[in-house]
Amino acid sequence: MSKPSVADVRSGGQPPGIKERVNEEHWAGRYYMRDLSPYLSTFFVRLGVPPNPITYLMMACGVLAGAVVAFGGLWSAVLAALLVQLYLLLDCSDGEVARYTGRTSVAGIYLDRIGHYVSEVALLVGLGVRAQGEWSAGGWVVLGMAAALGVVLIKAETDNVVVARAKAGLPAEVTAEAMRPRSSGLSLARRLASALKVHRLIQAVELSLLVVVAAVADAFLGDLAATRVLVAACAAVGVVMSAAHFVSVVASRRLE
Fold it and tell me: Residue 152 maps to which CATH number?
C-alpha cells in the first residue's frame, strides 16, 4: 500500500455512486474534480499523510480565499477563485485518502463540515469588505456578514435535523418523501427554488467565479457597482433562503 497507483486510490477512494450523491457531491466534483483528485490523493497516500491534516489544509485555503478577495482588484478575485478550486480539490482528496486507508472517522466528518462553514463565511465577509472599498466597517461589510449568517443558518438547520433525530433515537437517514413539505404550496415553492438553484449564489465555488465576473465588470466601469450588486444579491439570498429552509424543515416530516 506504500506505493499505490492512481487507479488503486481511485478504486478505493471513490466507491460506486459517489458522484451521484444527492446534496453531497458538488457539480464541479462530478464534472471534473473527481477526475483530478485521485492524483493528489495518491500523492498524499504515498507520503503517509493522514486525512485530517488534508482537511485542515482545505480549511486554510477557503479562509485564505476570503482574505485575498477582500483586497479588491481583478488579481485578488482571480487568486481567490483559484484558491477555492484548490479548496474543492482538497475537499475531494481528504475523503478519498480516508476511505482508501481505512481511516474514516467521526472527527474527520466534523472537521470537514466545519471547514465548509468557515470557508464560505470567510468568502462572504471578504466580499463585503471588497464592496466597501476599504478596510473599515460600513454598510457593505454588514451585508456581507448578513449573507454569511444566512449560510451558517442554512447549514445549521440542515445539520440539526440529524442532531434532533439522533437525540430522539431515530435513524439519521431521511427519505425523499419525508423531506417534502406537507403543504402542496410549500412543496411547489421548494421544487421551484431547487430548479432555479438560487442557493448556489452563496456557495463558495459559484460565488468565487461570480466575484471574478464582477471584478471584470468593475474594471470596465471604473467603480465597485458590480461587486456591490453581487453582495446585495448574496445578502438577499442568504436571508430569504435561511428562513425558507427553516420553514421547509418544520413543515416536512424530517423531524418525525
Answer: 1.20.120.1760
